[in-house]
Amino acid sequence: MRIDKYLWCTRYYKTRNLAATAVKKGQVKVNGAAIKASREVYPMDKIIVRKDQVDYQLTVLDLPESRVGAKLVDIYRKDTTPKEAFEHTELLQHAKTHYRKKGLGRPTKKDRRDIDDYLDESE
Q1: CA triple 23-25-29, angle to 5 deg
Q2: Is the pLDDT of residue 73 over 70?
């Protein structure tokens, strides 16, 4: 089975075209090597998928006939992604909300003047 079709069947990408595009961009590696979308996948292959700033590591257990339901995905792959990868994205989310609350937009002129006054006082 082609790698793009496998990633689509196991629900890593919503469409097969998105999966093929990710492979072309080099976001998918099989056994540590960059590949083409037409690369065949076999059981026990190690796949690394970079998606949303997380490197998902999975092992192919079996090849599905067609796209499978979300509950059946674990039959065809084993996810070995370390917990640290998800903690990194959580830290990024906290860092974004720390500087400016969501929905407040750009600083107003008054906010900008207050920032400048604060920086002038510290010097």
Answers
A1: 45
A2: yes
